Amino acid sequence: MPVRDRYAPSPTGALHLGGARTVLFNYLFARKMRGQFVLRIEDTDQKRYDPESLASILEGIRWLGLQWDEGPEVGGPYAPYFQSERLSLYQAAAQRLVEAGHAYYCFCTPKRLEALRKEQERAHLPTRYDGHCRNLDPSELKQRLAAGEPGVVRMRIPDGKTVVDDLLRGRLEFDNSTLDDQVLLKSDGFPTYHLAATVDDHEMAMTHVIRGEEWLPSTPKHVLLYQMLGWDPPTFVHLPLVLGPDRAKLSKRHGAASLLEYREMGYLPEAMNNFLAFLGWSPGTGEELFDLDGLVRAFELEKVQSSPAVFDQAKLDSVNAEHIRRLAPGELSRRLRPFVPDEIGDDLLAQATPLVQTRITKLAEAADLVRFFVERPYDYPEGLVSKGSDAAEAAAVLEEARAVFAAGEPGPGLEAALRQVAEKHGWKAGDLFMALRVAIIGSRQSLPLLESSSILGQDEVLARLDAAIATVAGSTGAAASQKPAIAEDEASP
RNA sequence: GGCCCGUUCGUCUAGUGGCCUAGGACACCGCCCUCUCAAGGCGGAGAUCAGCGGUUCGAAUCCGCUACGGGCUACCA
Fold first, then answer.
1. How far is A46 from A41, CA to CA, in rounded Å?
2. Nearest nucleotide to A44, CA against C1' atoms
3. Which residues of A are marked as active site?
4. Mean model confidence pLDDT for chain A
5. pLDDT value, residue A262
6. Measured between alpha carbons, how far is A444 from A327 in angstroms, rounded to an integer?
């Protein structure tokens, strides 16, 4: 029997990291086992349904490259894949359960249920349905049904114990007395999660249900449902929760709410997959860097951890940086494109990319690093004049350096010539390079000076040096001109 | 309150009775390299394996209890 698993989101909010991790594990397992990965939309809550979140969930999964084999947009042999289009299936199942005595109609009003709950809370009792409608008189029931009185269908939890077999946690035994008579069919005719998921997982021939640990407490109800309907249950796998730094379940208040926000920040999908995979799983080999195919090859469901994992942004950053460094320069350029200003053309970006590659953690950081290619410095940070020197000397030094650039020395010769200039004036080479960096790039931290200058082009470099020389000279009073206030400050010790 | 799950460096983890004086990665610190920033190389600090009690010749590994953390407790999923 081929493996079939699924991710079954409810379109009521964005795809979070925890959800993305669940998608990933389902995908990896299905691919590893050469089975099918199904996407099913659990839109059974009409009040909370949000079409935008549906679109963003699909987009997020696609961004990660975790294409589903069956589901929305691609269809499949078990269509439709939206639960709202499968209502008759759930209603028929509910009907069967009622007829077999495994479920019953309940006409309790929300008001009564709320009062009941309040009372139980006050008495420090477990909050559970009290079975008020469990044994309605058959003729009365017929009457109320005929009268169209609104009601729900509830599961009749039998006495005894229910065993849940979880792939990661082993055999778990639940006392049925702690289980609630769960609502299966709501008064609007829609099923609750418990009924819909059970019916669909069976109808869609799921062999594995891989979901978050928050579902573990309701799994005995699902097992019971399988028994009542005479179906074989799938293998249950409850993944450990993904926690925020405060050790509570990851949520919006821990930062980025949506997976797609990570795309905007410049994380690579392959890095997200790599990072997410290691949240609760490890190949045990010490290898840490994987692309999607590598993950598929190495993945083993049995090796998934059963204790929760704390999301660590610093680790994500490091994984992302690592993946950025592994990209071929051409590919990196393509990825960088949306993050870099349009004024920087494709050719320029391609030239700058190798310089940027080891200096960014996220794609979005590239923008600040390459901006100087199209923006002349309008302000000089400290550094034009080296320590222990003065403006007049600095101007002279820069002037000589300018001559070196003007002579158009080729690569290695250029650097050597500049070092000679520094030496002649008793400057440390580093101070000269810093002065040039400030003059040409406008920052004390930058891409490598000489490579950047060569990309910038001789004319542009000379123009920038002239402007810097004028500023330095101006601050001595030798050349009266408008100069940035900041340069004046630096010139005076 | 009830039910359930979990507990190895700050974080992700390796580890399935002796190979562990507990290994790796990230983060952190130092050194080297170096035109800045990175990258890279080398090194360092960091875990009495939650605690206690058992089982055993021997326990991070098996069992029990306690503590702590978390999840669930809707006509939400």
1. 13
2. B77
3. 252
4. 93
5. 97
6. 28
C-alpha A240/C-alpha A59 separation (Å) is 25
Are residues A20 and A277 in contact, defined by beta-carbon separation less than 8 angstroms? no
Q: What is the pLDDT of residues A226-284, one digit of tens each?
A: 999 999 999 999 999 999 988 888 877 777 679 999 999 999 999 999 999 999 999 99
The whole-number Å distance from A206's CA to B4's C1' is 25
Strand B nucleotides, any atom under 7 Å from protein beta carbons: they are 1-8, 10-15, 23-27, 35-40, 69-77
Rounded to whole angstroms, how far apart are CA atoms A85 and A79?
A: 9
Q: How far is CA A181 from the centre of its chain?
A: 37
> What is the reported pLDDT for A476?
56
Residue with nearest Cα to nucleotide B7 C1': A307
Report yes or no: A170 and A197 within 8 Å, Cβ to Cβ: no
- Give the closest nucleotide to A169 (alpha carbon vs C1'): B5
Å from the A283 CA to the B3 C1': 33
Say what the alpha-carbon torsion angle A149, A154, A159, A164 is, to the nearest 10 degrees.
180
For A28-40, write each residue's pLDDT tens digit.
999 999 999 999 9
Nucleotide nearest to A281 (CA to C1'): B13
Strand A4-7 to A36-39 pairing: parallel
Q: How far is the CA of A264 from the C1' of B12 (A)?
A: 24
What is the rounded CA–CA span in Å between residue A92 and residue A98?
Answer: 10
Instruction: Read off the pLDDT of each residue in A455-459 and give the average, rounded to a whole number.
Output: 95
Mean pLDDT is lowest, of A42-51, A130-139, A242-251, for A242-251
Report whether pLDDT(A491) > 50. Answer: no
Question: Residue A99 to residues A96, A106, A176, A223, A237: CA-CA distances in angstroms?
Answer: 5, 14, 21, 19, 31
Question: A282 and A303 in contact (C-beta within 8 Å)?
Answer: yes
pLDDT, tens only, A340-365: 999 999 999 999 999 999 999 999 99
Nucleotide closest to A432 measured between CA and C1' = B35
CA–C1' distance A208–B6 (Å)? 23
Longest dimension (CA), chain A: 110
Distance CA A263, CA A352 (A): 22
Nucleotide B73 C1' to residue A153 CA (A): 20
Question: Which string of b and e fits A118-139 if b means at least 16 CB within 10 Å?
Answer: eeeeeeeeeeebeeebeebeee
d(CA A352, CA A357): 9
